[in-house]
Amino acid sequence: MTALLKLEGLTKAYPGVVANDDVSFEIRKGEVHALLGENGAGKSTLVKMIYGLVKPDRGQMEFDGVPFAPVEPRAARATGVAMVFQHFSLFEALDVAENVALGMENPPSQRELAARIREVSEAYGLPLDPHRTVGDLSAGERQRVEIIRCLLQDPKLLIMDEPTSVLTPQEVEILFQTLRKLQSEGTSILYISHKLEEIRALCDGATVLRLGKVVGRCDPREKSAAELAEMMVGSKLQPPIRDAHEPGDVVLEVSNLSQASHSAFGTALKDISFTVRAGEVLGIGGVAGNGQDELLSALSGESPAARHAVKIGGEEIGHMGPNQRRQIAVLAAPEERLGHAAAPGMSLTENALLTGAVRQGLTKNGFLKWGDTRAFAELIIKEFDVRTPGPENAARSLSGGNLQKFVIGREVLQRPEVLVVNQPTWGVDASAAAAIRQSILDLAEAGAAIVVISQDLDELMEISDRFAALNEGRMSKPQPARGLTMEEIGLMMGGAHDMEVAS
Amino acid sequence: MDLSSINPVFLIASLMVAATPILLAALGEMVVEKAGVLNLGVEGMMITGAVCGFIVAVESGSPTLGFICAALGGALLSLLFGVLTQFLLSNQVATGLGLTLFGLGLSALMGQGYIGIKAPEVFRLDIPVISDIPVLGPILFSHDLMVYLSLALVAGVWAGLKYTRAGMILRAVGENHDAAHALGYKVVRIRLMAIAFGGACAGLGGAYLSLIRVPQWTEGMTAGAGWIALALVVFASWKAGRVLLGAYLFGGITVLQLNLQAAGVAIPVEYLSMSPYLITIIVLVIISADKSRAALNAPASLGRSFHASN
Amino acid sequence: MIRLEKRPSPSRFWAAATPVLAVIATMIAGGILFAALGKNPFEAIRTIFWDPLFHESFAAYSRPQLLVKAGPLILIAIGLSMGFRAGIWNIGAEGQYIMGAIFGAGAGLAFYPSESFLIFPLMVVAGAVGGWAWAMIPAVLKTKFGTNEILVSLMLVYVAENILASVSSGLLQNPDGMGFPGSRNFGQWPAAANTEIFVNSGMHWGVVTAFIVVIFAYVMLTRHILGFQIRLTGESPRAARFAGVNPTRLILICLGLSGALAGMAGLFEVSGPAGQISIDFGSGYGFTAIIVAFLGRLNPIGILLAGLLMALTYIGGELAQLMLGLPSAAIQLFQGMLLFFLLAMDVLSNYRIRIGKTEVA
C-alpha cells in the first residue's frame, strides 16, 4: 500500500512549550492509524496542523504524493481531510441538517441535503433525523452528526479525536464496525486515543507521542496494553493500592431525588436513590450529558433539592446550600476546573478561600484572614505536589493536571466525611491521575464516603467498590464493581441507545 | 378634553412613522446579537446617524444623500466598537456604554451650527387615487420611502437569516464561536460585518428622526430610542417579524400618548411622556418571566469575547 | 502581523499603567480634536488640566470646585463599581441620583421651616432611601423574573426625569416662588443646607461622605468576605455559586448599595451646590460616573483619583469654554474618548502583544 499522508519533521512551538518536535510518520491508504499519547503529548496540535487550524513552524506534509500545506480547514477539506472533533464542533440551537451544511464546502439545498443525510446515515447504521435540533440530541447522536458531516464529503482521510469517550461500550462496538466498513472502502483513518484496548482492537499501525516527540512506532495488535502504556508514559505505572476493608455505616443517603436542570439543554434528574457507606467508593459512570453535572450540583448544594431527598447520617440536608453542607463535612469537586471549581483569573490563595472559608476558619466576623488562607494554599501545594512558583499565581496559569491536584487537594485536606467528585482525572496526565486516585482511595481508607462520577470506565473499575450508571437523568441500581463485565456496564449505561450495526 | 380629535386612521398612519426609527435600529441590533455580539451603543450610533444625516441633507439639499451618510456614519462609529471588542477584546457592555456616551458628545459637537434649521423636504409617496382611498390610502400608500424600506429590510433580514448560507453562518458564529472557528469560519470578520450592519441600521433610524419624524436637529434628540430598540430585540426574542410587531406596538403607544397630550387629557404631561418607558419595562418583565423561551432563543455566545487560542 | 497572547496571570503593572497611558493618549487625541476646531491644542490642554489648579486668577475659584464636582462622581462611581465587578450593570445611576434628591428634599421640605438639627440627617437618610428604592426596581425585577437590569435601570432614568419635571412645578414647588418652577432654596434654610465645612474649600458633607465611602469600599473589597464574593462573582459566576454565594442576595446588595450612594449624592447636591429641586437638576453625573468607575479600574483608590481627574475636565472644560470658546460638547466627547482609550488599553493587562509572523489560529 502507498502512503496517503506523509508528515516530515513537523515542529510547532508555543511560548514556553514545544508542542510538536520534529514529528514524522505516514498513513497508508486504507489504514487505520493510531496516534497514541497522554494528555499534553501534542496530539491535538498535530491534528490541528493536518486540518489547517494551526500552521507548523517547520516541516512539510504530503497528501497523495502532492505537497500539502492547508492554510485553513476549508483547504484541508477540499483536499479530502475530514475531522470529528473531541469537543464537538456543533451548534446546539441549529438543526442537524444546518449543522451538517456548515461543515461542507458546497452544500446542496436543505431538502436535498436532508435526503442525503438519511441515505448515508442508513448505509452506515447511524440513524439520524435531519430536522431535529442538535441541543436535544444525546452525546452519541451528536457524534453521529459529526461523522455524517464528514462522510458526506467522501473523505480520503478521516481524523477522529478521542471518539469513544462519549459512548457506551455497545456504541463503541458499533462505531468500530462503521469505521471498519469505511476502511474496507479505502478510507484512511487517523485515530487519536489514549485507550489502549481500543487501539489494539481497531488499528493497523500506531505512532506514539510523548512530550511532543515521536517515541515509538508499532503494530498495536502485536503489543500488549501494558507495553503500549509504557511507551506512552515512559515508565511503569503503579496501579493504585487499596487494602480490602469492610465499609461502615450508611453516611450518605439519596432518596427519590428529582430535579429539573437549570440550563436550557441540560438533563433533569429523575427519581435517583442510592446510599454510600463510610469508607466506600461509589463509582457513577455514564455518557456525558446524562445528568452528571446536575447530580453534582444537587449533592454539593449549588442547586438545593427537596429537604428529604438527601440525608447525611440520617439528617435531612437536601435544602442546604454549599456552605451549610461544608459545615457538616460534605464537600464536592466539580468537573470544570476553570470557571466552576476554580476562578481562572484569581490567585491560588483566593481559590483556596473559595471553598475553604468555612471549614478552615479563614474568616472572622466576615473579615478575611489572608495569612491563614495563604498558609492553607501553601499546604495544598505542598501536600499534593502542585507545580507552581507560588500561591500568588493565577489558577489559569497552572496546567490541567496541576490545577486538578489543587482542586482535589483543597477538598481532601478539609477532612470531608462525604466527598463527591466529577471527572477527577479528566485531561490529566497519567502520573497526576494516579496521584489523584490514590488520594481518593486514602480518603476512603480513612473512613469517608465517596462518590466518583466519571466517564472513564477503567478508572471507575479501578477505584470503585460499587458501580452505577446515569442514563438520561436516571440512575441504575448500584452493583458491586468487582466482577462486572463490560457488557453489563454498557447495558447499565443505556446500551446502544438507538444505534444499529452498519450494514 | 376632546378625544374625538384623535382619528384612528391617522393614528395608525402616524404610528408607522413613529415606529420606523426604532424598527430600523432594533433590526440592526438583532443581526448583531445573532452574531453573538451585544452592542449597547445603539443610542450613540443613532444620534450620530441623526446628526450626520441632518448635516449632509441640509448642506447638499438631498435627503437621500443624508440617509446614505447617516448609514455610513453609524457604521463607522460601530466599527470603533468592533475594533475594541473584536481585536482588543474589551468588555462588550462597557464598550457599548462608552459608545453611547461618545456618540452623544460627538453628535452634540457636530450639530452645533445646525440647531433650529429645518430639514429639506423628503419625497413622500402620493399616488393620485390610490393614496386617496379612504382608510387604506393613508395607512398603506402615503408614506415616505424609508417606511417601505424598513419593511423591506424586515423581510430581507428574516429571509436572509433563515434561508441563506450567509445567514446560517452568522447564526452559527453567534451560537458557538469556538465551533465556527474550528470549522474554519472567520469569526471576527463575520462579527465585524454584522456590527457594521447594525451601525448602519441605527444610523438610518437616527436620520429618520432628524429628517422626517421631527424634522430638526436638537441635542440628545434620540431620548432613549436606542435603548428602547435594545429592549425590542429582547421582546422579539431575536425574531425579525416580532421586532416589527414590537416596534409598531411601541410606535402606537408613543403616538397615542402624544395625541392624548394634544387632546388635553387630565393626566399630567409628565406621566404621559414617561409611559413609553414604563411600558417598555413592563413588557421586558413579561418576556423575561417566561424563562424557558427567552433562554432557548438567545444566541448562546452573546456578549462573550472570542480569542482563538492555538 | 500583531497578535495577542493571553497572559498566565493578569499583569499588575499594566493594570496600574493603562489609566495613565489612556489619559496621555486622550490628551493627544483631544489636542488633535481641538486643533481641528481651530483652537491652539496646547493652550486648550493647559486650560483644561493646568489652569483650574494653578492659574493665578482662576485657581482660587476653581480649586474648591474640584471637590464639589468630584464628590458626587466618586460617591456614585464607588457604588457602581461594586456592581460592575460582580457583572451587575446598573447604568441608571442618574435616575437614582434624581430620586435621591427628590426624596431627600421632599423629606426636608415636609418639616419646613423647622430649625431642628435633625432635618439635615433626616434628608440624607431619605435621599439614600430614595436612590435605594429606585435601584430596587431593577434589582427585584432581575431576581424575580430575570429581567435585564441594564435596560430597566436606564428606562427608569427617563421616568425619574419626568417625575423631576412634575414635582418641580407641582408637589415640591416653592409656594412663595411666584409661580416659577423649582423648590425652595435650601441655601436659605440653614437647618437643611449642605454647607461647606471649611470656608471656600469646596469640602461639603457629600465630599466627606465620598472620602469615607472610598475607605469603606477599599476595606470591604480587600479584607471582607462580601468583597471577595463580589469579585468572585464577576470573575466566574459558576465558581461563585459553588463557593456558596447567593446570587439573588448579591444583586440586591450591589444594586441597593449603588442606588443608595447615588441617592445620597443627589441629596448632597440638591441641598448644597444646586440649592433647589428644579427641572434641570439632572446634570449627567450618573453617566459620567460610569466613566469614572472604569477609569479608576473599579478600584476605590483608582476611583478617587479618576473622580478628581474627571472633575478637573469639567471645570477645565468650563474654563476653556469661557476663555477659548471651546464648545461644551467637545468636553463630553473628550470624556468619551478617555473611556475608549482606557478600554482599548485594558487589553495590555490580560494579553501580551506579540509582533511576529502570522498565526492562523
TrEMBL record, chain A:
One cellular component term from this protein's GO annotations in UniProt: plasma membrane
Recorded topology in the membrane: Peripheral membrane protein
Entry keyword set: ATP-binding, Cell membrane, Membrane, Nucleotide-binding, Repeat, Sugar transport, Translocase, Transport
Domain of life: Bacteria
Domain ABC transporter: 5-236, 252-497
InterPro entries linked to this entry: AAA+_ATPase, ABC_carbohydrate_import_ATPase, ABC_transporter-like_ATP-bd, ABC_transporter-like_CS, P-loop_NTPase
CDD domains given in the database record: ABC_Carb_Monos_I, ABC_Carb_Monos_II
Record's subcellular location: Cell membrane
Entry coiled-coil feature ranges: none
Pfam family, any one: ABC_tran
GO MF, any single term: ATP hydrolysis activity
Protein name: ABC transporter
Species of origin: Actibacterium pelagium
Automatic annotation (TrEMBL), chain B:
Intracellular or extracellular location(s): Cell membrane
Membrane topology, record value: Multi-pass membrane protein
Name of this chain's protein: Sugar ABC transporter permease
Pfam families: BPD_transp_2
CDD domains referenced in this protein's UniProt entry, alphabetically: TM_PBP1_transp_TpRbsC_like
Organism for this UniProt entry: Actibacterium pelagium
InterPro entries named in the record: ABC_transp_permease
Keywords in alphabetical order: Cell membrane, Membrane, Transmembrane, Transmembrane helix
Record-level Gene Ontology MF annotations: transmembrane transporter activity
Residue stretches spanning the membrane: 6-25, 37-58, 64-84, 96-115, 135-161, 192-214, 220-238, 245-265, 271-289
GO cellular component term, pick one: plasma membrane
Keyword Cell inner membrane: no
TrEMBL record, chain C:
Top-level division of the source organism's lineage: Bacteria
Keywords: Cell membrane, Membrane, Transmembrane, Transmembrane helix
InterPro entries from the UniProt entry: ABC_transp_permease
Predominant localisation class: membrane
Claim: Transmembrane helix is one of the keywords in the record: yes
GO CC term, one of those recorded: plasma membrane
CDD domains cross-referenced by the UniProt entry: TM_PBP1_transp_TpRbsC_like (cd06580)
TM stretches of this protein: 12-37, 66-84, 96-112, 118-141, 150-172, 203-221, 250-268, 274-296, 303-323, 329-348
Subcellular location field: Cell membrane
GO molecular function: transmembrane transporter activity
Topology in the lipid bilayer: Multi-pass membrane protein
Protein name: ABC transporter permease
Organism: Actibacterium pelagium
